[in-house]
Amino acid sequence: MLPSLPSRLVFSGLVLISIAAMAFAMILEHRLGLPPCPLCMTQRAFVVLWGVIALIAVLHNPSGWGRRVYGALCALAAITGGAVAARHVWLQHLPPDQVPACGPSLEYMLETLPFHETLSIVLMGDGNCADTQWTLLGFSIPEQTLALFTVVTLVCLWQTFRDYGEGNSNATQPR
User: Fold this and answer.
1) What is the pLDDT of residues 105-138, one digit of tens each?
2) Which CATH number fits domain 2-164: 1.20.1550.10, 1.10.10.10, 1.10.3720.10, 3.40.50.300?
3) Single pTM value for the model
């Protein structure tokens, strides 16, 4: 059954997962009052990125290698977001004496520092990123996000490398 799933349906599912993840993030921020740290905002950017790529794939509905390109691009976004989430989880599990000091706000850094320096500082994380503010079933938000990125990466890689049945049709017929 899985190999017969239309690629458009899989990409639509990836779009819906992205929308649901961002809706959940907005609920955590605006309803529960949990402000996102710089690493959280970076992870959100990669969730949106994979969602936008998947949406373009749905609208374009490519055939052949186009499906694989969109799958690979979505996978790249999810892998990169997963790397950021893994760094975030690592920061949360550091002993208290090894947690980096809290830095300036993202807004301040964007206003005063060159973009590449701001990006470097954001990806390193700071003390704000090490706080576990909320859990669900014992998992922090970055741990949940890492699990989501892992699942999405697997789906995207499957989408990239699966057999679409587009091979040489003469290869299966006897001569």
Assistant:
1) 777 777 888 888 877 777 676 666 666 776 678 8
2) 1.20.1550.10
3) 0.80
